[in-house]
Amino acid sequence: MSKELKEAEEAKKELGSDGLPGHHYFLDAVNHIDEAVANKSIASSAAKGIIYSLVETLGTMVGDPDLPAHLKSGYMGALDLAVELEAKLAKVR
Fold first, then answer.
1. Whole-prediction pTM value?
2. Staple partner for 36: which of 10, 29, 42, 63, CB 3.0–4.6 Å?
3. Across residues 53-57, what is the average pLDDT?
4. d(Cα 21, Cα 13) in Å, to the nearest integer?
């Protein structure tokens, strides 16, 4: 199996049966950025941009009336965490 095919298979595992990633996927992303900022392994401006994108994406997903309730609650938790990190990063120069 080629490397690209293996990566595609791994990416599919991240998605639920409905084709959407679980909230843990977004929580991991927020935590990863938080750790990278703490370790100074990412520029704060880059972290701000990534978190901004996550907040916008999660906000759009949470606002979707067709989103199942079990996913909405998980996404809302991830959104709250991302907004907290965004506020924390706003204080960083």
1. 0.79
2. 42
3. 95
4. 9
